[in-house]
Amino acid sequence: MIDIQLSERQERIIDIVKKNQPITGEAIADVLNLSRSTIRHDLTILTMSGILDARPRVGYFFTGKTGLNIFSDEIGSILVDEVKSVPVVVDESSSIYDAIVAMFLENVGSIFITDEGILSGVISRKDIIRTAIGGTDLHQVPVGVIMTRMPNIVYIKSNDSLLRAAEKLIEHEIDSLPVVEAIDDDKKHYKVIGRITKTTIARLFVELGNNT
Length: 212
What we know:
The chain is α/β, with parallel strands linked by helices. It folds into two domains: about 10-70, Arc Repressor Mutant, subunit A (Orthogonal Bundle), CATH 1.10.10; about 80-205, CBS-domain (Roll), CATH 3.10.580. Helices cover about 40% and strands about 20% of the residues. It is built from nine helices and nine strands. The strands form three sheets. A four-stranded mixed beta sheet has the order 3-4-5-6. A hairpin with a 2-residue loop joins strand 4 (about 110-115) and strand 5 (about 120-125).
């Protein structure tokens, strides 16, 4: 494995964060006179490596860690298909209670919802807690009532890079992504064939570090 050194722009980003933390990605981009999308890759690498810490609705912090090896080439070459895990899926007509049982039996933070085999929604533990607090009858109300529906679901495809998956997780502040296979791209009809989580990426990053 070849050690990848920090780029000049990544070094500048670290310096900006040190001087202005907490600072949002948009503010960092403004200082660099670049767009947010242009530095997304750099922020993902710096966050995954542990040099920066990203906190939702707060911004980026410098962790104090230095001298880390950056594995951008390796991460960029790994496809989602190589590391995806088995998804936890329930039918849209299932009750919220059934979804809770599936979530805790499989020990996952979110589950994917399908309608006749097509991805139609996703729910998280937060969704369930919010619903339970509201007094909803968990045994009677179908999970489709509380789920986030397409086209508002962030997903990834098997031939995308793991780095792209990491960027989506960080950008949208979510814990997992459904890995999908297109049934009809125009209508955004997809079959769920796997999942990618923050744990997936963290585990791979540790493995890369141990193999250095």
